[in-house]
Here is the input.
Amino acid sequence: MKTLKLVAVSAGLSVPSSTRLLADRLTEAVRAGLAGQGMDVEVRVIELRELAVPIANHLVTGFPPPTLDEAIEAVTQSDGVIAVTPVFTASYSGLFKSFFDLIDPDALTGKPVLVGATGGTARHSLVLEHALRPLFAYLRAIVAPTAVYAASEDWGGTGDALTDTLPVRIDRAGEQFARLMASTPRREQAYDSSSPVAALPIA
Amino acid sequence: MQFGIFTVGDVTTDPTNGRTPSEHERIKATVAIAQKVEEVGLDVFATGEHHNPPFVPSSPTTLLGHIAARTENLILSTSTTLITTNDPVKIAEDYAYLQHLADGRVDLMMGRGNTGPVYPWFGKDIRQGIPLALENYSLLHKLWREDVVDWEGKFRTPLQSFTSTPRPMDGVPPFVWHGSIRSPEIAEQAAYYGDGFFHNNIFWPMSHTKKMVELYRKRYAHYGHGTPEQAIVGLGGQVYMRKNSQDAVREFRPYFDNAPVYGHGPSLEDFSEQTPLTVGSPQQVIERTLGFRDAVGDYQRQLFLMDHAGLPLKTVLEQLDILGEEVVPVLRKEFAKLRPAGVPESAPLHPAVIAARKEA
Here is the structure.
């Protein structure tokens, strides 16, 4: 059975957080979707709260402390990324943005990304479309068409005539993302030192 | 192996007393530091080049020419010379002239510069940083080796029948290092020409430095200049020493905590663990520096950053005394013992090239 690498990045700040909860639910939905296609998945969850100080230090010094270095490497080497943030002041949180600011601009090129967000009210749900999707589009990631927003009320809600319940939306996103991951080959990031990297000689 | 210091030339407020030296004081202090470097028996003084406050060294050959007149044996170098925004023709002329004044005691380190606005201030485009470094150096290399140059490139006006004067002293162009922290293209460039590669590792984990030096060594051999072990490597270092390591930590901490580069970020302890910064006893500095060799192999030049972050001149001179008396003599001996035959002790500098020529 082929094993894919999935990394979930959660920017939730409280412990436990509903952002982490959404990340976990999405992860399980993707796992189920991949299992349906005969694929296994190795999941790694990155809690940005635990990396808050290393992230700030990287911004100041220009290099990642070991724990952050390892997290960035995990994201870079994955077959797919689930990125979930709480909504802060009408956008992703600063910590969430800072983490992705520190990843090589080319590291997510062609990589499947499933975005999710949580908030106190459903009125912020388009943050997925006006903030997260452009961020990952800039990084040339392949953002899954279905993104999942969970407002506080969704955790106990039954949906309405126009909106499916949260579990339905999570399953839809997971199934879709599993297909995307399964059909997207991982882009090797390794640097090959046996060939020239600059066109020399210059006239 | 050669030991020396490299200076950024920053004018920084001393965080322990709030005093900021004037530009005049900083420039005079730089000269005093260079003279001290020779006095304590070190080999190299290298100056940075900057074109914005709070840095003073905008005119490196003026500074180095002055120091040349006040020293006998000190090698004058740069860290770095901006190969992107300077006209390579002017670099060829300035440094050949300096080489004559200093009787050959000159080498240089090329760098691209990391201050965005400097490019437009000098009429260049930062997005062309690597192509500028490659083309400009290729012209500089030619100007020092061919008496009459016909040349055409993308970034400066063409040359027909141009001779850069004065010619390099005794026909030996100044030795060149290429400095880069993370651009493999520059390691490749250094390897292609058989020039030296300097990794300013002081703000980076050694694992990263190791990768860049490995790449340079491999490509150096690929281009037929020798074995990977014979490639010419230089490293930075950053130290603060006192007899008792606790005193060193206590004295240096306010400078560390407020330093322009890493201040208000990681703790002194974390930064020391993750980068080559060593704050402690001379013995600790000796052990740490010898450890660089484990990461990059036998190397030819070690430059220390000693005069930054607002440290007063008096302290810097004391540090140089310790470096010259207690640290470098031991390092010279230990590195020499470890270096296998066939690995050059230093870069092929002017006197060595002349001596080899006489032998042949």
Notes: Strands of chain A lie at 2-10, 39-47, 80-88, 91-92, 112-119, 142-143, 148-151. The CA atoms of residues 58 and 123 of chain A lie 34 Å apart. Residues 2-183 of chain A form a domain with the Rossmann fold fold (CATH 3.40.50.360).
